[in-house]
Amino acid sequence: MGKGPGLYSDIGKKSRDLLYRDYQTDHKFTITTYSATGVAITSSGLKKGDLFLADVNTQLRNKNITTDIKVDTNTNLLATVTVDEAAPGLKTIFSCRIPDHSSAKMELQYLHDYAGICTSVGLTANPIVNFSGVLGTNVLALGTDLSFDTKSGVITKCNAGLSFTNSDLITSLNLNNKGDALSASYYHIVSPLTSTAVGAEVTHCFSTNENTITVGTQHQLDPLTTVKARVNNFGKATALIQHEWRPKSLFTISGEVDTKAVDKTAKFGLALALKP
């Protein structure tokens, strides 16, 4: 584990990855190639029913500066420039989507042994300002995540989170949607040798008085093959198997079934990621 508490997005990340990452019911492929000059080109395609979405991302690294340029099927262009370690612990990120020039944004991330701060501001006349901060250590951390619309003078987002971490257990508590949703998550490493872990997330929405409970697990069948499964209190059961058939090249098959309506057709997803 690192020395500091990380950023606000790290609170509950382990359980979220266990419960939601790599699950999908669509068809997706990703191919990454590298030029002789070190430029990385990643082509992605996603088939959602009859809709096909694709994009091409070009990444160039020069010392501590990384430039990403992504073009999608709607001819939108997203440019991102990241300057890492502009000062000790500081990362600067500039992004802009063309033709939507109002999307230009500047973001600063600062990591310290006892704090993690992230702030971003839109480069417009009346920008939305985002701020998140975490105080603590790699064991206990407390943070908040805020967004403020300078045009309307309204706080559009207000979240808070708390996390506790030890060698094989991570728990977190988040208050989201301006206090309307309370989530508690749990992640436990059962066996480091086989990457076996279990996790759970419980969310209560105060406005609807509805609870959502999701539990899941993962296990490494061999050094190259991992299986995962999850189920929620609405009867949705999902499983996947992921195989790394060559370094960093992954093939994933996912399936989802509604156990409360088994007459409905099960959903299946495929994902293929190729890297040289």
Describe this structure in words.
The chain has 276 residues and is mostly beta strands. Helix content is 3%, strand content 66%. The protein is built from 1 helix and 19 strands. The chain has one helix at residues 13-20, and strands at 27-34, 40-48, 51-62, 65-72, 77-87, 90-98, 105-112, 115-122, 128-136, 140-149, 154-165, 169-176, 181-191, 196-205, 210-222, 225-232, 236-246, 249-258, 267-274. It has a 19-stranded mixed beta barrel. A hairpin with a 2-residue loop joins β3 (51-62) and β4. The longest helix has 8 residues, at 13-20. The chain is globular and about 55 Å long. The model has no long low-confidence stretch (mean pLDDT 94).
Fold topology:
Elements: H1 13-20, E1 27-34, E2 40-48, E3 51-62, E4 65-72, E5 77-87, E6 90-98, E7 105-112, E8 115-122, E9 128-136, E10 140-149, E11 154-165, E12 169-176, E13 181-191, E14 196-205, E15 210-222, E16 225-232, E17 236-246, E18 249-258, E19 267-274
Parallel strand pairs: 1-19
Antiparallel strand pairs: 1-2, 2-3, 3-4, 4-5, 5-6, 6-7, 7-8, 8-9, 9-10, 10-11, 11-12, 12-13, 13-14, 14-15, 15-16, 16-17, 17-18, 18-19
